[in-house]
Amino acid sequence: MAFCGLDFGTSNTTLGYYGGEAPRLARLEDGKDTVPSAVFYGRDGALTIGRAAMALYVGGTDGRLMRSLKSVLGSALIDEKTQIGKHRVAFREVIGDFVRTVKQRAEVDAGAALERAVLGRPVFFVDDDEAANARAEAALRAIALKAGFGEVSCQFEPIAAALDYEQQVSAEETALIADIGGGTSDFSIVRLSAERHRRTERADDILANDGVRIGGTDFDRHLSLGTLMPLLGYRSPMKKPGRDVPSGYFHDLATWSSINRLYNAKTVRELHEVRREAAHPELVSRLVRVIEEQRGHTLAMQAEEAKIALAGEPQVDVDLGWLEAGLSVGITAEELVHHTRALAERIAARIANCLDQAGLKAGDVDALFLTGGSTRLKHVRAAILAALPGARVVEGDTFGSVGTGLAIEAARRYGNVAAA
Predict the structure, then answer these.
(1) CA-CA to 324 of 20 to 30 Å: which in 52, 74, 356, 357?
(2) Selected residue with higher pLDDT from 182 and 315
(3) How do beta strands 63-67 and 38-42 pair?
């Protein structure tokens, strides 16, 4: 058993391998089979990942937190360098540190070295750019090899989710797999059956693949811009008529992968100047404090937590007392829908593309298999279900279906296993 499937996600990561005759997910942190895709470097360069990384940051430990690293694949940022302690390190190396640590933890859980891996990849790392998608996959492969795997290959994440779902399929059916993750939303239409599940070659069963680079972190960003950033001066006026406080700072602050760009002396100097010219300097003072104290990730975490809570609650209160005594804001589920409705509609619109590729109508799809954390958002689910009103809805393992399916694919490619 020297093979595995690695689902390196924008928000969470899993790794699947075969334990006995069945695929299972490795316990990657505190007995859990998911680990947040977060990296924290202390000032001495010490590396911590996952929940522990975020806890160090929230607890005030001096260092750098990075999340949403998958989003730099396919962009020029992959080889840009960021300051870590006294050194500047490329984002490629940061991702490599994370993947290497996940591999080591999984090997402890499996009790064996994991030498070959099938890596999950979205249908599109970057929308409408084949060259960027090829670069992203090549970068992911190179990072995994440098992290210690001897051989790697890739599989589309929704196809991996389909392999997991197929374990429970008895009769022949056509299924649309919707994987709405942290960074991308991916769809595949696949022919499934118990007999097909035993085959090693499945190319003819894949009828369509499509996706869009919209995921949970985009919902975080829009919710933050709509509800939290106005408290820091977003869209507030300058003293000079007809001008607002520059919006770029707020967009970077609301975007996981851009937050660290703001932590520099030049930005702080600019913001002090903006505050002098702002009509409401007290709001910009809050922004200055967030940047000076490097608490941008705290705001991003609170936006994410509010989004998750609003999947089941009508309203949540976000306590910003750490920024200013007594400061808080209530956010309703209606506000979440208002600020992110367009994202949900764009995600669901990709289903029509899939149907066109497959030469099918909505009524030809028997089952809709949902996986990925953002499928918990009610308006996202509603938009997807509206595109396939007659399909049977099947709930997958929200965070584990892709990792499990990648393990099944790895067994076929590297273990000469035709899944039973």
Answers:
(1) 52
(2) 315
(3) antiparallel
Confidence of residue 81 (pLDDT cuts 50, 70, 90): confident
Note whether 398 and 374 are within 8 A (CB).
no
Report how far residue 165's alpha carbon sits from residue 370's, in angstroms, rounded to the nearest whole number.
Answer: 10
- 278 CB-near residues (< 8 Å, 6+ apart): 233, 236, 237, 238, 239, 245, 284
How far, in Å, CA of 156 to CA of 405, rounded? 10
Taking a C-beta distance cutoff of 8 angstroms, is the pair 113, 120 a contact? no
- The Cα–Cα gap between 113 and 58 comes to 34
Under the phi-then-psi rule, with left for phi > 0, alpha for psi from -120 to 50, and beta for the rest, what region is 233?
left
Structural tokens at position 419: 């899944």
Instruction: Output the pTM of the full model.
Output: 0.89
The per-residue b/e assignment along 277-296, b for 16 or more CB within 10 angstroms, e otherwise, is ebbebebbbebbebbeebbb
Torsion angle in degrees (nearest 10) through CA of 248, 121, 220, 318 = -130
For the cut 70, the answer to whether the pLDDT of residue 418 exceeds it is no
Residue 219's nearest CA partner among 338, 297, 316, 307 is 307
* Listed residue (30, 26, 78, 83) closest to 53, CA to CA: 30
User: Which H/E stretch holds residue 154?
Assistant: strand 151-156
In Å, how far from its chain's centre is CA 374? 9
164, 397 Cβ separation under 8 angstroms: yes
**Where are the chain's structural domains?**
217-339
Range 332-338 average pLDDT: 98
pLDDT at 397: 85
